[in-house]
């Protein structure tokens, strides 16, 4: 059976259609999943109607059907759980006995470990933890994916294919998900902060704020495309534009003198540490 055939027959339940789950669903539909194969849930009837119109899938609300989540998962092959870390254990406990035994539960909740999630699921339930980042909303995200011990090779391949419509998918061991959080999950905010700082000081240098913001955004985008589409490393690309004694060299020397690499490392360590702390906080 081809990957296209597999997608054509996969039944997906999406629990919660917030911005992240909505972006993931958009990518899965772009990857070839038929909209008719999707059942999603939301809290309110108004939201269900709006989301059904937006994504072209069946959406049921907890307001109309208090058992909406259980209804949605009853015949699913894959269950995408878009519930906040503090709520995911209770949500899975409530519907665990409604899940088909071979349905793959996919969590996007940061920090909450497979051990914790598995403790409220049926023994042997396939489980995949993922760590997506917000650029999925524009089809250019990163997803760290950690298949659990009960996930078959075919199921892991299917989940990867479903997420591939939203960007880069990297399989890792669960123990490395805190590193994925630090490297990709939280990293868009690092770049937003850097662009913010550039635009702010550009205004102080005399540029209109709107022009400064557009220039910073375009520069971040262009640099990202050079990294993604070329065959050179970030270090090589950086040195290519550093003429000895030139303006770029002076700027980089200033960054390095102020310890930019240490600043980045400490920020990444803080993000990874917080992810591990959340794993201890949100237990069954």
Automatic annotation (TrEMBL):
Pfam families: F420_oxidored, P5CR_dimer. It is an enzyme of class 1 (oxidoreductase). Keywords: Amino-acid biosynthesis, Cytoplasm, NADP, Oxidoreductase, Proline biosynthesis. One of its GO terms (molecular function) is pyrroline-5-carboxylate reductase activity. GO terms for biological process: L-proline biosynthetic process. It is found in: Cytoplasm. One of its GO terms (cellular component) is cytoplasm. Pathway: Amino-acid biosynthesis; L-proline biosynthesis; L-proline from L-glutamate 5-semialdehyde: step 1/1. It catalyses: L-proline + NADP(+) = (S)-1-pyrroline-5-carboxylate + NADPH + 2 H(+); L-proline + NAD(+) = (S)-1-pyrroline-5-carboxylate + NADH + 2 H(+). SUPFAM superfamilies: 6-phosphogluconate dehydrogenase C-terminal domain-like, NAD(P)-binding Rossmann-fold domains. Residues 11-111 form the Pyrroline-5-carboxylate reductase catalytic N-terminal domain. The keyword NAD does not apply. NADP(+) binds at residues 15-20. Belongs to the pyrroline-5-carboxylate reductase family. This is Pyrroline-5-carboxylate reductase. It comes from Micrococcus cohnii.
């Amino acid at each position: 059976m081809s990957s296209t055939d597999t997608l054509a027959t996969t039944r997906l339940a999406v629990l919660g259609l917030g911005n992240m789950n909505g972006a993931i669903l958009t990518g899965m539909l772009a990857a070839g999943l038929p909209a008719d194969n999707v059942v999603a849930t939301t809290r309110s009837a108004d939201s269900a109607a709006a989301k059904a119109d937006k994504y072209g899938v069946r959406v049921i609300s907890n307001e109309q059907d208090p058992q909406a989540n259980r209804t949605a998962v009853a015949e699913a092959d894959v269950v995408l759980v878009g519930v906040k870390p503090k709520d995911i254990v209770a949500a899975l406990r409530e519907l665990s006995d409604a899940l088909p035994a071979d349905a793959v539960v996919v969590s996007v909740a940061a920090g909450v470990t497979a051990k914790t999630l598995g403790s409220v699921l049926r023994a042997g339930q396939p489980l995949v933890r993922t760590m997506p980042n917000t650029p999925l909303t524009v089809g250019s995200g990163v997803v760290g994916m950690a298949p659990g011990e009960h996930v078959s090779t075919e199921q892991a391949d299917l989940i990867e294919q479903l997420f591939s419509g939203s960007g880069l998918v990297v399989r890792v061991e669960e123990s490395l998900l805190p590193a994925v959080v630090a490297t990709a999950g939280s990293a868009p905010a690092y770049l937003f902060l850097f662009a913010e700082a550039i635009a702010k000081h550009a205004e102080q240098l005399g540029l209109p704020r709107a022009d400064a913001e557009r220039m910073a955004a375009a520069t971040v985008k262009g640099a990202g495309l050079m990294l993604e589409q070329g065959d050179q490393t970030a270090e090589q690309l950086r040195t290519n534009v550093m003429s000895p004694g030139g303006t770029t060299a002076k700027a980089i020397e200033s960054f390095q003198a102020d310890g930019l690499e240490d600043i980045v490392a400490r920020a990444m360590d803080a993000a990874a540490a917080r992810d591990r702390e959340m794993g201890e906080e949100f237990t069954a």
